[in-house]
Automatic annotation (TrEMBL):
<feature type="domain" description="HTH tetR-type">
    <location>
        <begin position="31"/>
        <end position="91"/>
    </location>
</feature>
<feature type="DNA-binding region" description="H-T-H motif">
    <location>
        <begin position="54"/>
        <end position="73"/>
    </location>
</feature>
<dbReference type="InterPro" id="IPR009057">
    <property type="entry name" value="Homeodomain-like_sf"/>
</dbReference>
<dbReference type="InterPro" id="IPR036271">
    <property type="entry name" value="Tet_transcr_reg_TetR-rel_C_sf"/>
</dbReference>
<keyword id="KW-0678">Repressor</keyword>
<keyword id="KW-0804">Transcription</keyword>
<protein>
    <submittedName>
        <fullName>TetR/AcrR family transcriptional regulator</fullName>
    </submittedName>
</protein>
<dbReference type="GO" id="GO:0000976">
    <property type="term" value="F:transcription cis-regulatory region binding"/>
</dbReference>
<dbReference type="InterPro" id="IPR001647">
    <property type="entry name" value="HTH_TetR"/>
</dbReference>
<dbReference type="InterPro" id="IPR039538">
    <property type="entry name" value="BetI_C"/>
</dbReference>
<keyword id="KW-0805">Transcription regulation</keyword>
<dbReference type="GO" id="GO:0003700">
    <property type="term" value="F:DNA-binding transcription factor activity"/>
</dbReference>
<dbReference type="Pfam" id="PF00440">
    <property type="entry name" value="TetR_N"/>
</dbReference>
<dbReference type="InterPro" id="IPR050109">
    <property type="entry name" value="HTH-type_TetR-like_transc_reg"/>
</dbReference>
<keyword id="KW-0238">DNA-binding</keyword>
<dbReference type="Pfam" id="PF13977">
    <property type="entry name" value="TetR_C_6"/>
</dbReference>
<feature type="region of interest" description="Disordered">
    <location>
        <begin position="1"/>
        <end position="20"/>
    </location>
</feature>
Amino acid sequence: MASGPTVGATSGTTSGTTTGAALNQREQAAADARSRILAAAATCLVRDGLAKVRMAAIAREAGVSSGLLHYHFDTKELLFGEVLAYSHGVSTELNAQAVASAGEGSAARLSSFLDRCLPSDDRLRHEWMLWQELALLCIRDPHLAKVGQDVYELLYSSVEEILEDGVERGDFTLRTGARQLAETAVAMTDGLGGRVLAGDLGLAEARTALTTTMGILVGLDDPLPPAAPFPTSPPGPGRK
């Protein structure tokens, strides 16, 4: 009689463990497929342009079936919204690394963050192309517009935090609110970066314009220092 419950309990535990492992494997496989789809969508948008990109092409690029693609994303708009959020998540991690590698100086940290907002390497140029393709959709589609607003809010907040920290340290003297200056700084990177991407302004000139102007706006006697060297990486999804 004693052996009956023992065997039963052991079998139940094994079965539960097996079921849990199978669920975890399925969940991991689904997460991997979703990541491949998002990365593939970003690649297709940059390569083919928004007007020509097709869901079937994204499925082929991701190495999944069209059925699996539509299982994860019902519509192209929903997929593009996820691409925006996913790409910014990738860039956020890299931006944090760039700021950390710049050291403790407020001016160096600000310079490194803003430099990441320019198309200054292969990955960032890829990101810029992606965001340019999606910009019109953000204007026309309320769901995508909200995603775009959330992403820009994170950019503004990041710059604002660096500015406020610089003021507290006595490094910066602002003639306007930190939030207003943060929005101005991001707008400058948008404008300068667009010209770099179009080929009518060199990256060096854009950097000089950005560091000189921001140096004045934060109350420095000199431009912001050049951004700290940051390891480049292959093209991939990310902010702009």
